[in-house]
Amino acid sequence: MEYYLDLKKIRESKPLIHHITNYVVMNDSANITLALGASPIMAHALEELEDLISMADTLYLNIGTLDTDWVNSMIRAGKLAEKYNVPVLLDPVGMGASELRNNTVRNFLESFGVSVIKGNGGEMLSLYGINGGVKGVDSLRGATLEIATGIAEKYNTTAVITGKIDFISDSKRRAKIENGSEMFQYITGSGCMLGSVISSFIGVNRDVFIASIEGLLTFDIAGEIAGKKSAGPASFRENLMDEIYNFNEENYRFAKVTVYG
Amino acid sequence: MEYYLDLKKIRESKPLIHHITNYVVMNDSANITLALGASPIMAHALEELEDLISMADTLYLNIGTLDTDWVNSMIRAGKLAEKYNVPVLLDPVGMGASELRNNTVRNFLESFGVSVIKGNGGEMLSLYGINGGVKGVDSLRGATLEIATGIAEKYNTTAVITGKIDFISDSKRRAKIENGSEMFQYITGSGCMLGSVISSFIGVNRDVFIASIEGLLTFDIAGEIAGKKSAGPASFRENLMDEIYNFNEENYRFAKVTVYG
Amino acid sequence: MEYYLDLKKIRESKPLIHHITNYVVMNDSANITLALGASPIMAHALEELEDLISMADTLYLNIGTLDTDWVNSMIRAGKLAEKYNVPVLLDPVGMGASELRNNTVRNFLESFGVSVIKGNGGEMLSLYGINGGVKGVDSLRGATLEIATGIAEKYNTTAVITGKIDFISDSKRRAKIENGSEMFQYITGSGCMLGSVISSFIGVNRDVFIASIEGLLTFDIAGEIAGKKSAGPASFRENLMDEIYNFNEENYRFAKVTVYG
């Protein structure tokens, strides 16, 4: 299976995924990146970003617990990523929940190129300019393949909208994925861990539309398998990590993915 | 059972619990809030606090890894909570261990209303003005229902003193709870997770004396059940989270609670 | 077994281990310290460092997610540790990966005494002045007992170089340890957790060469046992913590340690 070739590449080449992410999920994101076979680094000091990002394979930015200092680090990191041709995945956590988050995301999109924007329905609706989709950081309303395509066109990026059904578009190509588990909503940072997983696939495959599909499938199917053997959210999280580590070619036969045009 | 009605309410209405807490426990607190059925948000940037706290059902403040910036965020958040009638639960972690912590807690109590103050014996003794009860952030000495009542009167709040026996007082009503597990002391953030759980009950029941009892019972009984099936502290933490997620009406039959006057 | 006497001392006297460490591992480090039987505290505010460090048994410094504010806290903490005769364990995470890290570690070593420096091969080679050993925060090249001895002499400290084989030297005495598990590389913060464990042994044994051996053996053997019963990295981490908690005298019979004159 083609997806598996990129997972093997991750395990062999161990791409370096530079994270600037939120305090809540740093540990989970580092652990899932390692479980997948890639190499996470978490660093935000302005003085060392150039040394580190020049070595990175992907830059993952996540505004979950943003403040001025961290936003400045992310902007500098984004510009350095552009300089060194490092693809950027942006996770606009809580977009729509505060003006600060809205302004920060717009500022990012004007300051440096973003290869993939990934968010839940409410966040991505807000990004597209449709209000009322966000309560706190949780998504309330559905979103569709059309919104994903609209965001991809508007921001010259690949858009990933997560939910019961995931939608992916790079404006020319579109896909939907129907794997996953109800348990994802009962653990914190499932979206953030997914961001790390997609970033790892981007680290070995510069076709970020395909890399996003691969990341989503791997994460969602691992969650599906984990969900069936877990007594609750904490054992689910543990099993999810272990399933990611043990993920094999056969698991991709559960893929429910539709790719359009 | 009446306690269960509020747990059901949490699961149905998913109250939004705004956390400004310490780095060590953010992940655990977010996860236990989700496992219980409520919705956690963690954000501290001054610029977005009004947007977020105006939507919150409870504000949970915890000074575990405090510094000037975070203290300023907590003060602003506390004042906004007052403006928007959002109840505040304050966790004075390490009270008594440093002058900074003592001054910060006093500053909070003079700056905004606090619905519940929850700490261990040493912290609460220090708050009440009795020194020598704290070594680091761990409690050394016992404390009693009288101290809880004294704190409740002095600060016009509901006081929760945790330990082998938990004491609760809103000055008029008093209660003690004798559930729990020895294993709580071998995991970090058990008090902080309890803070998230009580905050979630406050999110659906504005009688914070009752909500505190419900939170304590749910957390302590889940711990009791988890303790019996765990090989050590890490499996205890996992089982605790899973038990919170699976908590049902029957579990409250283990409640060892005495309510006075 | 002599090692076990110090583990018993930890469990009885619960030494206070002051951590100033990185965001990614704070929770894991606190939990493993508690599982071992010691008492962790995590605090970085300049205003309270003297109150807290004057009570501490060991100071553990880790630069994993350093920035200016945290570096300033660590320097102040290091100087206070010197003032109060508290031994310092320094974990130069990512040494060699950026100039900022290199300069920070050198600055520390000029500003206060360090009892133990512990790092992986790449970090310790960089510290010794041999470049090219670091990719991100992971070690690429081997290092030897000679490097450990060289660092110990150069910086008047005890050097611990971790890897498949661990090397320890205080310049006069040298040792190597061949315990461990392949799984350590698939979880984040294994080196940081080890730092907490060694710091706890230093908290009860001021012969830091011996305390380092005891910490390494306890951590590595617990990992060996955990590795044999784990389905992946997340269950490994859980089992590791539980094994640390349940560690008994018999487990030290697995020790593969060689001490040289």
Question: Would you kindly provide a written description of the structure presented here, covering whatever features stand out?
Answer:
The structure is a homotrimer of 261-residue chains. With 261 residues, the first copy, chain A, is an alpha/beta fold. Chain A has one domain (2-260): UDP-N-acetylmuramoyl-L-alanine:D-glutamate ligase (3-Layer(aba) Sandwich). Chain A contains ten helices and eleven strands. The first copy, chain A, has helices spanning 2-13, 26-36, 49-53, 68-83, 99-111, 121-128, 145-155, 190-202, 208-228, 233-246; strands at 16-20, 39-42, 58-62, 88-91, 116-120, 134-135, 138-139, 158-162, 166-169, 174-177, 257-260. In chain A, the strands form two sheets. The first copy, chain A, has a nine-stranded mixed β-sheet with strand order 2-1-3-4-5-8-9-10-11, with helices on both faces. A two-stranded antiparallel ribbon of chain A has the order 6-7. Chain A is globular. In chain A, 67% of the residues are buried. The interface between A and B is medium-sized, with 34 and 31 residues.
Properties at a glance:
alpha/beta; UDP-N-acetylmuramoyl-L-alanine:D-glutamate ligase; 10 helices; 17% strand; 261 residues; 11 strands; homotrimer; two-stranded antiparallel ribbon
Quick recap of the structure?
Chain A is an alpha/beta fold. Chain A has helices at 2-13, 26-36, 49-53, 68-83, 99-111, 121-128, 145-155, 190-202, 208-228, 233-246; strands at residues 16-20, 39-42, 58-62, 88-91, 116-120, 134-135, 138-139, 158-162, 166-169, 174-177, 257-260.
